[in-house]
Write a structure and sequence with these properties.
Elements lengths: L11 H12 L30 H6 L1 E3 L10 H9 L14 H9 L6 E4 L2 H12 L5 E6 L4 H8 L3 E6 L8 H10 L4 E7 L11 H10 L6 E4 L15 H5 L4 E6 L12 E4 L2 H7 L9 H12 L1 H24 L4 E2 L5 E5 L4 H10 L2 E3 L9 E5 L3 H14 L12
Helix pairs in contact: 1-12, 3-11, 4-11, 5-6, 7-8, 12-14
């Protein structure tokens, strides 16, 4: 077992029609959130010498940051537009966003905390439970902001390698947590995991919760929950209802297409929410609160986005496998393909062809993460891929 303690860093209808066409459906069927640098798979900041212009930014096929490429549906746009009238007020009506989220999950409002994206929730959880130099236990690679935040507040992390088939080894997490329980303040589980796209099964989540100290907080990041099809997966919100020390992080950045608007939330026992609340910034804006309410209600739009995204992911990964490149089976709106060479220089090769792809995720430095974009964007990706990589002869496999 390898234990690491160092920290290193992480027009809707028209778009749907295009995506449906690429996926094989009839045409009539129904920002750049983290500011990635070019070397990490995203465009350079706009404006100034050597920076990306607005025209250049718009022209990229943006497959680097796991966003929803179709934008908010009309229902959400209408709600946010109408909320502009509250832009000049502090104590504005917020559409009942906390009440809507609580009702959506069948919990009380005391179980909900808003954040400016789920990224703020992850930071708040770290600040709350890693005080005094405590450690967070998790895997690597995973979504690295939790580990980076730990480093920033002079805490630490114990990062475990992924196991067979790039999955999170739950028994190893249990044993490590118990071995270091006096110094562990938090266990982190990204489910499905970013960047691999693999799930932790509902049976494994229960195994984890039953195997570690009963009072140990467990942060479960469910940012990609909405894209999962595997019946062995389940949200962990029911554990909150049982009073377990489980904190669920959710976001409106993915399925709801509000990445640039910044809205996320935590679902947790009221006692944990009370501990977390003093560290929140209260910076969620009026527009996105109303947009979030509309997004929760517009389940039809979310179902369409999921269906199209899954179809495009399967089509693209199938083409890659036909070319001889293995792909890790994903349950998200992104996937990892084994390109058999270092990722970092390849990122720039794709950029020169107008395609932005994901940053490196050590130690998986020969796996390229690709977000699922529109039909046109995935077509551009495949064209670029065939120009950059030769076809190879190999036995078709789903795991690199």
């Amino acid at each position: 077992m390898q234990v690491r303690s160092r920290v290193s860093r992480r027009k809707f209808v028209g778009g749907l029609a295009a995506a449906l066409g690429y996926a094989g459906f009839a045409p009539g069927v129904d920002a750049w959130a983290q500011g990635r640098a070019a070397g990490q798979g995203g465009p350079r900041p706009m404006g100034g010498r050597g920076r990306t212009s607005l025209e250049e930014y718009d022209a990229f096929a943006k497959l680097a940051s796991n966003e929803n490429p179709y934008g908010p549906p009309d229902s959400v746009m209408k709600a946010m537009t109408q909320a502009f009238k509250y832009a000049n007020r502090y104590g504005y009506p917020d559409g009942g966003i906390v009440e809507e989220i609580a009702a959506h999950h069948g919990v009380e409002t005391d179980n909900i905390m808003l954040g400016a994206g789920s990224g703020e929730i992850l930071s708040v959880v770290g600040t709350t439970f890693l005080k005094g130099g405590k450690k967070v236990v998790g895997v690597e690679p995973s979504y690295g902001s939790v580990y980076a935040h730990a480093s920033g507040i002079e805490a630490d992390s114990i990062r475990l390698p992924l196991g067979k088939d790039y999955r999170q080894e739950i028994q190893t997490i249990i044993e490590t947590t118990n071995q270091h329980k006096a110094e562990v303040g938090l266990v982190y589980l990204c489910n499905p995991n970013n960047p691999t796209g693999l799930i932790v099964t509902k049976q494994e989540v229960r195994q984890l919760l039953d195997g570690i100290p009963k009072d140990m907080p467990v942060l479960i990041d469910e940012a990609y929950h909405h894209f999962v099809e595997d019946p062995n997966y389940a949200t962990s919100v029911p554990y909150v209802l049982q009073g377990r020390p489980v904190i669920i992080a959710r976001t409106f950045s993915k399925i709801a297409a509000l990445a640039g608007m910044r809205l996320g939330y935590a679902v947790a026992p009221a006692s944990l929410i009370r501990k977390m609340r003093p560290w929140g910034t209260g910076s969620v804006n009026a527009l996105v609160k109303w947009g979030g309410v509309a997004a929760l209600k517009d389940t039809a739009s979310q179902e369409r986005v999921k269906r199209i995204t899954v179809e495009l992911r399967k089509k693209t990964t199938g083409e890659l496998q036909t070319l001889g490149y293995s792909v890790i089976p994903s349950e998200t709106n992104f996937f990892m393909v084994h390109i058999r060479r270092e990722v970092r220089p390849v990122i720039e090769e794709f950029r020169k062809k107008g395609v932005l792809v994901g940053r490196p995720f050590p130690p998986m430095t020969e796996h390229l993460r690709v977000s699922v974009g529109t039909a046109d964007e995935m077509g551009r990706f495949m064209t670029a891929f065939k120009e950059i990589f030769p076809a190879v002869k190999t036995t078709t496999a789903s795991v690199g």
